[in-house]
């Protein structure tokens, strides 16, 4: 959660330039001019209407009314991030965010995390270098409850914190760090860069999540000092967006928040950009990495600086497209990596510009560095293509609308803009700055901050491959946690509730009642038959954007024998342009329309997904037709995409989670079943594929049946007329092969272990096969699972995270497809909690059905029914709804029918489903962890017998 992510579209520019021949350049520039004029006209009319007022205590409030769905979003932005921390207490802002989700004086323990999802809501938070955010989206009946919870967090939380709660949350945050940093490939890169780039006393010289030792040393006094200093209302913005009456909402906010303290003045931090006297080059042998990665990081400017937007665009120009100089040299010409990226990250007091290349296996990073230098020299010679800037502006418009397509997006954007730019509508200001940006501005930023400037170079290479690092690099200093086998030293619990004198309040702070329950109803769906294909659509004119897809009945499960990965590789190759346009030229043409077009192969379908401005719907369809009809299957493109696929396969071997999932899949379905191995293929199968195989796969694609789904600002007749020409491309002549039944090998054990030496956590997967999605029992199993593992309020998370502090998250769920599907529980626990966690998981699954009671049933009913009010708000969610209908033959009102089914289920029905489908003694367990310390606890759990599998997955 960074400011640049929250500002969304105006801060998200992922485009770059390419150099066309003169005739193509002239045509692109003419199209760019037209697109820019349209974009400017549309942008001038764009705004998010809002009301802003300030309470006497300094709380700034932003209100935006959006009655399109019966939901309301709340965003609380506190102007404190890791840049306010002290050395020795790094990670404290993020740690405090965790603590602030726990108790408060007037809200029962655990309600913040548990009750909100049970009310059909979504809640979470995030911390970045400069700030902290808390947010919720709930049905309209829970508005008063959120105001109660949010105000209690800010004004009545600190007295409830106990030593036991502090120690428990330390373990949760440490588990988060292990999962995201210590146990992840390249996880330490940010830490190494920050230490090298910033002086020791600079507040960006440490990471947001901090050091484990600092977290362990945090005290109650530290917590109270931090709260007193930074959590006063004068340091907060509170935004509300959704379906409410603004006058009534203002009264409620004044009621709940008006008496809270302002807090001491928080001094604004002045920009403190840094400079490097000389280049620093560091390397690290990464325990999990399988590919070498090079990053060049240059110090740049703070946010709101005049160079921020030019630097953002510079990143797009240098590495954001297939026509960019970095991509051309590193990927196309020298074939050193499957991709590149370049980006600027300007924060409150300083900024960084990064060029990142994750190279092919075994690549010497000195070669990559030389290639980067060659690409930069090419950029200096050729400059910025003006047509590319126009393309950026057209795509920015689409992104701008996407950023406000949900009430949560609006609330977060308004609140963050207000707190950090002093203007809730600052995104529009940035958009206008981008519109007036010139090629000279971008080149000036490059010359000022990148050209010939000292940098931090980091070489992260696989363990034992230090020779791949840039020559002359120095070994970086990284604090690596020792993997421990003992459990007792870190046993924690919630402990007793705190004893304290309740803080007086001027208002009644007892729990408010629910308002009127909003009822969910399916959106109006239109349908038609076009060229023998089914079209389903939902018209929505909230933003002038259209999203549609073409779902083709041809996926990885249907690859010919010995050609595993063919469908996926063919889809990737189709993204490489057409017979008349290179990949860069096609990307340019789509970008000028404000469109994005991508092709991805799944297990049973290949899906072409398109997003475009409504006014360019037909022109975008023309491009899609060209892509489908005349793909660019050149030998050079194929070789590059094939190598990128092989690099991706190698890269996944760095992830303990991916290693465990692949093994789990093979054990459930069988090594030779289509659903057993990865649909991406293996290194051997992908290496054996040829261009002829791609042409064969493309012919199979065109002979398959298709389904069309469209959502957005286009009516039924226009959608039908526009998509008919695409339907004509598919004959539907091919008979879709029937998939065989799962054929797992006979096993003498149910517990499987994969040794990944040095793992700081153990990945645990447990589960079994159940029924296909179209089976009526699938929905009942889904309902029954909700209380057990459906999110943070589920039993698994509540016990393993909230009570025990063993993990950062623990969930369960059901996959979807026409084959028998997986019910799967998954978590990553700290290494020395592997044994106890397994015992808890087994007992919870075994006892779930027998102990399921009426209160569990009521929670399940309320949670799912209310969740539906917000679950299908976005265009993407509505598109997913249509896919479910067409793929599984569901009725147009299936959600309403499922809702009726849920409300009719009695306790005995839930117990029966659990007894029939969630039998613990039929489940398998896969554990990925450090063999030296965890093999014995896993063996003890298994009763003395485990099967050990290789990490390669072969």
Automatic annotation (TrEMBL):
Gene3D superfamilies: Metalloenzyme, LuxS/M16 peptidase-like (3.30.830.10). InterPro entries: Metalloenz_LuxS/M16, MPP/UQCRC_Complex, Pept_M16_N, Peptidase_M16_C. Residues 61-185, 539-647 form the Peptidase M16 N-terminal domain. PROSITE patterns: PROKAR_LIPOPROTEIN. Residues 1-16 form the signal peptide. Keywords: Hydrolase, Metalloprotease, Protease, Signal. Residues 218-394, 689-855 form the Peptidase M16 C-terminal domain. One of its GO terms (molecular function) is metal ion binding. PANTHER family: METALLOPROTEASE, MITOCHONDRIAL-PROCESSING PEPTIDASE SUBUNIT ALPHA. Belongs to the peptidase M16 family. This is Insulinase family protein. It comes from Parvularcula mediterranea. The lineage of its organism: Bacteria, Pseudomonadati, Pseudomonadota, Alphaproteobacteria, Parvularculales.
């Amino acid at each position: 959660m960074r400011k640049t992510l929250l500002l969304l579209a105006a801060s998200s520019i992922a485009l770059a330039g390419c150099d066309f021949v003169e005739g193509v350049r002239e045509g692109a520039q003419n199209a760019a001019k037209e697109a820019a004029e349209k974009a400017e006209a549309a942008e001038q009319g764009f705004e998010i209407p809002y009301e802003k007022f300030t309470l006497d205590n300094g709380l700034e409030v932003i209100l935006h009314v959006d009655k399109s769905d019966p939901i309301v979003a709340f965003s609380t932005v506190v102007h404190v991030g890791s840049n306010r921390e002290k050395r020795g207490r790094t990670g404290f802002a993020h740690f405090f965010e965790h603590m602030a989700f726990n108790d408060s004086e007037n809200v029962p323990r655990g309600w913040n995390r548990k009750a909100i999802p049970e009310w059909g809501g979504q809640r979470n938070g995030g911390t970045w270098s400069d700030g902290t955010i808390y947010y919720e989206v709930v049905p309209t009946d829970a508005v008063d409850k959120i105001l109660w919870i949010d105000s209690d967090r800010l004004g009545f939380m600190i007295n409830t914190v106990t030593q036991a709660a502090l120690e428990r949350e330390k373990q949760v945050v440490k588990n988060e760090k292990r999962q995201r940093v210590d146990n992840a490939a390249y996880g330490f890169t940010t830490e190494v860069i920050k230490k090298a780039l910033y002086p020791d006393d600079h507040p960006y010289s440490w990471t947001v999540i901090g050091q484990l030792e600092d977290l362990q040393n945090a005290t109650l006094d530290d917590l109270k000092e931090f709260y007193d200093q930074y959590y006063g209302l004068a340091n907060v913005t509170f935004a509300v967006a959704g379906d409410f009456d603004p006058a009534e909402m203002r009264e409620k906010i004044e009621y709940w928040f008006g008496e809270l303290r302002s807090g001491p003045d928080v001094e604004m931090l002045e920009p403190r950009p840094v400079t490097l006297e000389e280049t620093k080059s560091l390397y690290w042998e990464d325990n999990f990495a399988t590919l070498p990665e090079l990053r060049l990081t240059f110090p740049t400017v703070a946010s709101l600086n005049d160079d921020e937007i030019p630097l953002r665009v510079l990143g797009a120009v240098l590495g954001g497209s297939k026509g960019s100089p970095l991509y051309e040299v590193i990927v196309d010409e020298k074939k050193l990596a499957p991709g590149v990226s370049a980006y600027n990250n300007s924060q409150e007091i300083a900024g960084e510009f990064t060029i990142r290349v994750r190279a092919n296996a075994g690549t010497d990073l000195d070669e990559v560095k030389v290639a980067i230098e060659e690409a930069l020299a090419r950029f200096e010679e050729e400059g910025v293509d003006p047509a590319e800037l126009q393309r950026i502006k057209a795509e920015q418009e689409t992104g701008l609308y996407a950023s406000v397509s949900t009430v949560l997006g609006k609330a977060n954007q308004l609140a963050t803009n207000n707190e950090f730019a002093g203007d809730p509508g600052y995104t529009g200001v940035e958009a206008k700055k981008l519109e007036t940006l010139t090629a000279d501005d971008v080149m000036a930023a490059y010359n000022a901050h990148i050209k010939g400037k000292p940098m931090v170079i980091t070489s992260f290479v696989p363990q034992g491959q230090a020779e791949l690092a840039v020559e002359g690099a120095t070994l970086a200093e990284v604090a690596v946690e020792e993997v421990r086998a003992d459990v007792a030293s870190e046993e924690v619990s919630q402990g007793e509730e705190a004893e304290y004198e309740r803080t007086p309040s001027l208002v009644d702070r007892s729990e408010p009642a629910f308002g009127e329950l909003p009822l969910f109803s399916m959106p109006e769906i239109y349908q038609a038959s076009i060229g023998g294909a089914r079209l389903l659509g939902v018209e929505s004119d909230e933003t002038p954007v259209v999203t549609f897809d073409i779902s083709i009945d041809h996926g990885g499960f249907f690859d010919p024998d010995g050609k595993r990965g063919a469908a996926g590789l063919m889809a990737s190759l189709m993204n490489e342009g057409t017979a008349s346009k290179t990949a860069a030229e096609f990307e340019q043409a789509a970008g000028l329309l404000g469109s994005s077009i991508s092709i991805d192969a799944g297990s049973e379908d290949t899906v072409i997904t398109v997003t475009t401005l409504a006014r360019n719907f037909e022109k975008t369809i023309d491009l899609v037709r060209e892509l489908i009809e005349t793909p660019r299957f050149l030998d050079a493109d194929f070789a590059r995409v094939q190598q990128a696929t092989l690099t991706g396969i190698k890269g996944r071997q760095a992830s303990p989670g991916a290693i465990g999932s692949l093994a789990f899949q093979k054990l459930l379905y069988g090594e030779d079943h289509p659903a057993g191995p990865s649909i991406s293929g293996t290194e051997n199968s992908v290496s054996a594929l040829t261009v002829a195989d791609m042409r064969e796969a493309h012919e199979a694609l065109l002979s398959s049946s298709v389904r069309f789904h469209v959502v957005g600002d286009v009516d039924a007749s226009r959608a039908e007329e526009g998509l008919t020409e695409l339907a004509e491309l598919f004959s539907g002549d091919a008979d879709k092969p029937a998939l065989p039944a799962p054929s797992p090998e006979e096993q003498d054990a149910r517990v499987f272990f994969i040794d990944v030496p040095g793992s700081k956590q153990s990945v645990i997967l447990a589960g079994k096969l159940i029924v296909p999605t179209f089976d009526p029992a699938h929905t009942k199993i889904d309902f029954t699972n909700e209380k057990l593992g459906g999110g943070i309020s589920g039993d698994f998370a509540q016990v393993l995270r909230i009570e025990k502090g063993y993990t950062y998250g623990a969930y369960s769920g059901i996959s979807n497809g026409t084959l028998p599907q997986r019910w799967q529980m998954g978590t990553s626990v700290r290494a020395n909690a592997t044994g106890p966690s397994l015992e808890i998981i087994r007992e919870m699954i075994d006892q779930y059905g027998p102990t399921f009671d009426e209160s569990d049933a009521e929670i399940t009913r309320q949670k799912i029914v209310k969740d539906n009010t917000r679950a299908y708000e976005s265009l993407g969610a509505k598109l997913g709804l249509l896919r479910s209908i067409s793929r599984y033959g569901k009725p147009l009102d299936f959600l309403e029918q499922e809702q009726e089914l849920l409300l009719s289920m009695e306790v005995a029905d839930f117990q029966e489903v659990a007894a029939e489908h969630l039998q613990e003694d039929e489940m398998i367990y896969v554990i990925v962890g450090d063999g030296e310390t965890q093999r014995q606890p896993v063996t003890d759990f298994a009763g003395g017998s485990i099967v050990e599998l290789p990490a390669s997955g072969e």
